[in-house]
Amino acid sequence: MKNQKEIEYPDVALNHRSLPSDPELRVRAIETLLLEKKLIKTESIDAIIDLYENKIGPINGAKVIARAWIDKKFKERLLSDARSAIQELPYIGKQGYNIIAVENTKTVHNVVVCTLCSCYPWSLLGIPPSWYKSDQYRARVVREPRKVLSEFGLKLSEKIEIRVWDSTSELRYLVVPEKPKEADGLVEKELVKYITRDVMIGTALVKVS
Ligand code: FE
To answer: Average of pLDDT values for 181-185?
Structure first.
């Protein structure tokens, strides 16, 4: 009779090899399993996706930034304790994680990543873009942020320091961009249109046309 090790080890190795490497395939496999076991319903998944993709999107984050741009005191609170400042805004639900707001200035540019997986402030920015979850972005933005940002079309002067923030399941980051001069005089509702998802991740600058 074979001992326990001889029987189990090849099976474990085989299972690990057969795991799909693509996150999308892995998600599909988990979803299928949960549906088969009747632990979730397709309609519930669709409702959650619709909520984050269409109803939340990056609009909540944009509202936070727009408020910070027009209300100096709110901006101070946002930069010192983002979690409680964000909770002052009634339309945004409680965050299930802590959040830090990092401010772009004339000399510092911030960019956010999750090197381990894909931690992201969902309740502020909606569903993360696929590039945010990619191995390439996660590995490269920490090693060569200036080059990666230039590939996004964001060419920063060598004089600007780039700070890369690594998110975790407990702690997420929100980039507070600089308000461009062209945005002076615009009201909160108009400002929101120019504050995009990528601006709040740090891979783009605000463009007011
Ligand atoms: Fe993560």
So the answer is: 93
